[in-house]
Amino acid sequence: MKPTLPEDRELEKMGSEVSERYRAGAQDEPPARLDATIQAAARREVEQPRQRRNWQMPASIAAMLVLGVSLVLVVRDKEPPLPSLEQPAADEAKLAKSAPPQLAMKTPPKPRANIHREERPSRERSARPDREPAARDEVGAAQENATASGAVAQSAPAPAPAAPAAAGQAKPAEQEQTRIAESSDSSPNKKDKVLADAAKESRSGVQALRRQEATAPTQPREWLDEIDGMLRDGKEAEARRRLLDFRQQYPHYALPERLQALLPPEAAK
Amino acid sequence: MLPARLTLVSADPVSDEQLMLRYRDGNAAAFDELYGRHRGGVFRYVLRQVGLRSAAEEVFQEIWMNIISSRARYRVEARFATFLYHVAHNCVIDHFRRKTPLHLISLDDDPEEAHQVAGPDRDQPERAVALRQSAAKLLNALALLPPEQREVFLLHEEGGLTLQEIAGVTGTGRETAKSRLRYALARLREGIEHEADIA
After folding, report:
1. Nearest CA in chain B to A28
2. Residue A127 to residue A176: CA distance in whole angstroms
3. What confidence category does residue A37 fall into, taking pLDDT thresholds of 50, 70 and 90?
4. The complex's ipTM?
5. Do A22 and B138 touch (CB under 8 A)?
6. Nearest C-alpha of chain B: how many angstroms from A23?
7. Nearest one of B175, B17, B174 to B83, comparing CA atoms
8. Residues of A with CB under 8 A from a CB of B
9. C-beta atoms of A19 and B188 within 8 A
10. I want to staple B177 with a disulfide (CB 3.0 to 4.6 A). Which of A95, A216, B32, B166 is the partner?
11. CB pair distance less than 8 Å for A38 and B68
């Protein structure tokens, strides 16, 4: 420290004089044992963190792994099934079991829009006032068949209406549009009534179709028995139609000769 | 052994700050060197204020333990000596807070301690006796100084701190530190001369 002010220089001069005397007697030192204690503590402080680091890193990694794996296991065990993916698949599998063979084969690959289109003709049909009793008959017959499970083959009435229903799949959707267009010419009250009736009957028509599907023959053998039953009852045209349906569904099934004779030559192959 | 102030100005290529940084980075030998440079000065700084040797040893150890434990947080923001004596100042204050009565060394009352302060000089026994007597007088005068003036003098002599650094350690302004130092030096001179007149 170099003093620049006069009073600083004076202070320095005073200090040097006193300082010389002070240093002559300033010989006190800490004891050697205290030196050793402090230096040992300093070394320990340097070494301890290194030792701590040696086991801390692997231990923390191991703990992280254990926690992560256990968390994954717990979450995987408790995870509920995804309803959006698994539930429709289960429903469709159930439907395929209970549905007749042709529906069971056709339903899964078709999108939902196509299913609605198929249902529409039957709805349309049942919505007509003149056909309403027939639809009711179909529902009644289907209910009877549902209760009499063993007598499906003998009781021909139930499957018989199913054929028009299936045939109705081919009907174009424009018919309903035409009907609504026709009804739009009439008064608003009448139009509302028609729409309400159509909605109501379409619901009942769908229900009836589902019941028919539930009671329709599920095996080719049953189906052929049913066609035999139609032939016995003299419903040859109906039997032919059902046989064509059967052939479409099972193109390679070996038909008995009596039934092959009913088919047109190209379908009998 | 040389006084601490002379040790500090020795032509050592490695500064105190660099030694502390090396110790922070895990070099225990750097601490040994740093400790060797400052052990005497810090010990005397404490001993002159605390009075009892046993208490001084206790405070001295506490100071160095604080330095050791603050190793990881050490940054070069000032001279290491300033940092060290700041810690020492706080430890001494803590000591006085813990033990209120201040026992000052009186060399007349304790001839053994007077012998410890001024060691024998075998080469020049008469000169050594004279110096010892002079030092004893100075230490007596130092013990009679007000604590603030004594501390400023010790920081200047043992720590080699500048007035600015002393002001920083004691929490005062530079002018206050300067004034205290001037009063301390004047009283010490007076004490030496008064003792000489009596003799």
Report:
1. B117
2. 10
3. very high
4. 0.75
5. yes
6. 7
7. B17
8. 1, 8, 11, 14-15, 17-19, 21-31, 34-35, 37-39, 41-43, 45-47, 49-50
9. no
10. B166
11. yes
Do the chains contact at B135 and A50, CB–CB below 8 Å? no
Longest dimension (CA), chain A: 146
Distance CA B2, CA B36 (A): 11
Chain B contact set for A1 (CB, 8 A):
162-163
Q: Cβ contacts of residue A229 below 8 Å, gap of 6+?
A: A153, A154, A156
- Amino acid at position A237, single letter: A
- Encoded amino acid at B177, one letter: A
pLDDT digits (tens, 9 = 90+) for A137-181: 444 444 444 444 444 434 444 444 444 444 444 444 455 555 555
Q: Which residue of B has its CA nearest to A50?
A: B26
C-alpha A256/C-alpha A27 separation (Å) is 129
A120 contact partners, CB below 8 Å, separation of at least 6? A171, A173, A176
In which residue are the tokens 């070099």 written? Answer: B27
B35 and A35 in contact by Cβ < 8 A? Answer: yes
**Phi, psi angle pair for B41, to nearest 5°:** -60, -45
The Cα A156–Cα A160 span in angstroms is 6
Q: How many other β-carbons are positioned within 10 Å of the β-carbon of residue B72?
A: 9
Terminal Cα distance for chain A, rounded: 121
Burial class (CB in 10 A: 0-12, 13-18, 19+), A29: middle
Q: At what angle do helices A220-232 and A236-249 cross, to 10 degrees?
A: 170
pLDDT of A94 reads: 59
Query: What is the pTM assigned to this prediction?
Result: 0.47
Query: Which residue among A14, A45, A49 places its CB closest to the CB of B189?
Result: A14
